[in-house]
TrEMBL record:
Record keywords, A-Z: Membrane, Transmembrane, Transmembrane helix
Protein name: EamA-like transporter family protein
Xref: InterPro entries: YdcZ (IPR006750)
Keyword Repeat: no
Bilayer-spanning residue ranges: 34-56, 68-88, 94-112, 124-143
Domain of life the protein comes from: Bacteria
Coiled-coil ranges per UniProt: none
UniProt KW DNA damage keyword: no
One GO CC term, this protein: plasma membrane
Annotated signal sequence range: none
Pfam family, one: DMT_YdcZ
Taxonomic classification: Bacteria, Pseudomonadati, Pseudomonadota, Alphaproteobacteria, Sphingomonadales
C-alpha cells in the first residue's frame, strides 16, 4: 500500500481530533458535565462504528478471543483522552491542549517503538527522532507562551 491513503486518512483523523475537542467542550459547557459530553461522544461513535461494521465488515466478535488482555484497554484510553481534552481545551486553548497531547503522544510512541512494546515492531530511537520530538515539545512551549 502506498503512503497516499494512510496519509490522507491520518490527516483527516487529525482534523477530526482537533474539531472533536471544541465539539465535546460545547456539550460539556451546555450540560455542565465533561463526563456526559464524553459519554455522548462515545455513544455516537459506537453507533457510527456499529453501522460501518454491519455494512462493511461483520467480522465475528469471537475473533477477539485470542486478543491479549491489554488490547481491551483502547476504549479506556480513548475515553480518558476525550474527557481530558473536552475539559482542557476551553481552559488552556485548543492549540495548547492539542500540542501538549501530541508531544506526550510522540514521547510515548518513541518509547513504544524503541522497545517494540504492545505488539509493535522494534524501531530504535535515533538522534534525528529525538531532535524532532524536542522540536515538538519546544513548539508546545511556544504555543502555550504565544
Amino acid at each position: 500500500m502506498s503512503l497516499g491513503l494512510p496519509f490522507i486518512l491520518i490527516l483527516l483523523a487529525g482534523i477530526g481530533i482537533a474539531v472533536q475537542a471544541p465539539t465535546n467542550a460545547a456539550l460539556a459547557r451546555t450540560s455542565g458535565s465533561v463526563l456526559l459530553a464524553a459519554l455522548v461522544s462515545f455513544v455516537v461513535g459506537t453507533v457510527v462504528l456499529l453501522v460501518a461494521w454491519t455494512a462493511l465488515d461483520r467480522t465475528a466478535p469471537a475473533a477477539l478471543r485470542g486478543a491479549p488482555s491489554w488490547a481491551w484497554l483502547g476504549g479506556f484510553y480513548g475515553a480518558g483522552f476525550v474527557a481530558a481534552i473536552a475539559f482542557a481545551a476551553p481552559r488552556l486553548g485548543l492549540a495548547t491542549a492539542l500540542t501538549i497531547a501530541i508531544a506526550s503522544q510522540l514521547a510515548t510512541a518513541l518509547a513504544l517503538d524503541h522497545f517494540g512494546l504492545l505488539g509493535l515492531r522494534t524501531d530504535p530511537v535515533t538522534i534525528p527522532k529525538l531532535l524532532g520530538a524536542a522540536l515538538v515539545i519546544a513548539g508546545a512551549v511556544l504555543v502555550r507562551r504565544g
